[in-house]
Amino acid sequence: MENKFYIKKLDSYEKASEISKIRMGTEPSYDLDLLPSVQMQKEMREFLKYRGQQLGAEKFYTERRIYHHLCKMLQTRRDRPESFWDWDKEKWKQQMKIWLLQQGLPLTEISKSHCGNETVSQAKTLHYIDRLIDYFLNLRDADVNEMTKDVWQLDRRKTIKK
């Protein structure tokens, strides 16, 4: 059984222009088997569903290149994580920076604004890592028990009043 996330199943694919569909090819997809563990594949599938709702199909398709960077970085590691939760955000970024430098790829890029101003920002691959790990951090924060939040708020208020 193939383990792929098909871009054609996204709502945005139906709305894409014919030219965009031609650019994406006949079976545009993300190959989840490139990830080292079943757990990471499940987690990535959820992230791709989320990301697919935010982007147009062609932009989502172009992010595959960055996804492949992530997969290749993970394949070179001896101490691979089993889940995206196993490393903190700084370790993910650090490992990706190391991999990018080993591949001779830049850590930054220069972009021009509509006014013609040039700005330096981190590479698209590092932005992707930020989005990916932030997605999981937001999930974790959303799962925090509301009663636990309330208790923390009550304790905080008591401290402030003293």
Which tags fit this structure?
162 residues; mainly alpha; two-stranded antiparallel ribbon; 60% helix; globular
Task: Give the overall pLDDT as a whole number.
Answer: 87
Rg, nearest Å: 19 Å
Secondary-structure element string = EHHEHHHHEEHH
Largest sheet: 2 strands, antiparallel
Poorly predicted parts: none
Secondary-structure-derived class: mainly alpha
Give the number of domains: 1
Strand arrangement in the largest pleated sheet: 1-2
Helical fraction: 55-70%
> Span between N and C termini?
62 Å
Question: How many individual helices?
Answer: 8
Overall form: globular
What is the number of E strands? 4
Strand content: 5-15%
Ordered list of secondary-structure elements with their pairings:
Elements: E1 4-6, H1 11-15, H2 18-24, E2 29-31, H3 38-54, H4 57-62, H5 64-76, H6 89-102, E3 108-112, E4 118-122, H7 124-142, H8 146-161
Antiparallel strand pairs: 1-2, 3-4
Please tell me about this protein's structure.
The chain is built from 8 helices and 4 strands. The protein has 162 residues and is mainly alpha-helical. It has one domain (4-161). The strands form 2 sheets. The chain has a two-stranded antiparallel ribbon with strand order 1-2. Strands 3-4 form a two-stranded antiparallel sheet. Strand 3 (108-112) and strand 4 form a beta hairpin. Helix 6 runs antiparallel to helix 7. It starts with a strand and ends with a helix.
Brief summary of the model shown:
With 162 residues, the chain is mostly helical.
